[in-house]
Amino acid sequence: MLQLLKSYGNVDHKVKVTTWMYRVALNVSISYYRKHMTRKKHFLPMPEKPIHVVDQ
User: Fold this and answer.
1) How far apart are CA 10 and CA 19, in angstroms?
2) DSSP for the chain?
């Protein structure tokens, strides 16, 4: 809903409002997916084994 309000000024009045709303929703979904996949690539899970610290 927020993205619809933000992009209201860019409405092309040659298309139906529902088509425009669909495209906004689709673009938001694609952006979220890309952002999620980028973060997933840079995420490294912690090892299951305990880490031993050596005293010096």
Assistant:
1) 13
2) -HHHHHTGGG--TTS-HHHHHHHHHHHHHHHHHHHHHHHHHT--PPPSSPPPPPP-
Which pTM does this prediction carry?
Answer: 0.60
What is the C-alpha separation between 30 and 53, in angstroms, rounded?
43
Question: What amino acid is encoded at 21 in this protein?
Answer: M
Dihedral, 35, 40, 43, 47 alpha carbons, nearest 10: 160
Look-up: residue for tokens 């619809």?
A: 4
Q: What is the pLDDT of residues 5-45, one digit of tens each?
A: 898 888 888 989 899 999 999 999 999 999 888 777 767 77
